[in-house]
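hey m, so remember when u said the tokens were messed up on ur end? i reran from scratch. heres the input so u can diff it against urs
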Amino acid sequence: MKKKMAFIDLSNFHDWPMGGMLEYELAILEGLVKRFEIDIWGVSVDGIKPAPIKINGKEYNVNVFANVKTKNKIIPNYLRGMFIYGQKKIMKGHYDYYYAHTASCLVGIGFFEKNAKLIYHQHGLNYLQDHSLMQSIQRPFYTKAQKDADLVFVVSDTKSVKKYESMMKHKHHISAKYVSVRSPIRINNFDALRVQKRIDSSKNVDLKNFIYTGRLSKFKNAKLLVEVFKEYVKDINPKAKLTIVGSGEEAEDIEQKINNYDLKGKVKMLGAVKHDKIYDLLMTSDAFLTASGGEGVSVSVAEAYAAGLPVVCFNVPGLSGQVVDGVTGKIAFSQTEAGFFDAMKYVNDNHTELALNCMEAAKKYDSEKISNLITEKILSL
């Protein structure tokens, strides 16, 4: 008989919030439902209850424990994860495992559930470098969730996770077991033959199509991409294009920079788009750019690999372990616009070899392998 699991996140599991974390969860659920009897717990958005989600051909209802708002918020959405406590009468004693992907959700469960196993999934270690107001609000919940948990998955490389585990256990006396995991991608969604054909056709020509996908926040630093791309157009390929996919507080500033540099026809901002569209955009690009201040194990980078796109990035936590310098992309060790531009030139000059290496590297992120790892670690508790 399958053991029962409550799979919980501050999400409607459809389109809120947009981004890699949602894709991560949907990918691993395909494996988890094979081994556990799962109830999915999520939220409504602006009062709209989510429709069921389809996993491996079967529909699963999203049990709503809270409502999040896209505007006029008095209580920050992140804190609404605590509202899971309101389901105490229904949930307590009903599940063998609680698997939460938002720390505030696990904290709420920890107040009433003492017998089941609690699992927390920490999506990266960015918060250690990101000192924005939102991260300051969330930081105490990260710590409390790990104190309550029996098992903590951390989306980062093994070396970083071991260092993080040592720090958390020493500083906060945490007893949970820590496990490093990669970000899963659905490799079958990428047509390898089509990718190979595009790589072959771009031999000995300057790269034309660049892409960034992710949040448009100060920490992600997408404004710098426009600065550097301006130089690439001027010095290397005047026909080059840059596509920026995502939304966030920096969107207007980026749009202004595009206008100031007269790049309106060369830099396209698409806002938040559905993930199926992102697959199409990656398949028609040549290289992936990110000036982020740090990542966990980036879904965007892993999907870029599957599409045969070398990655240009800075030498920052997460990315420095995921991007192999001179193999799957180029790391700008000088964290300047000039350093990033030099890295773009390297990728332009060595594109074919890098692109083929990326396709091979993508196999490590196969969602089935990662879901199996997560399942085995949970069952071993």
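this time it looks ok to me. Residues 20-35 form the longest helix (16 residues). if urs says something different then somethings off w ur setup not the seq
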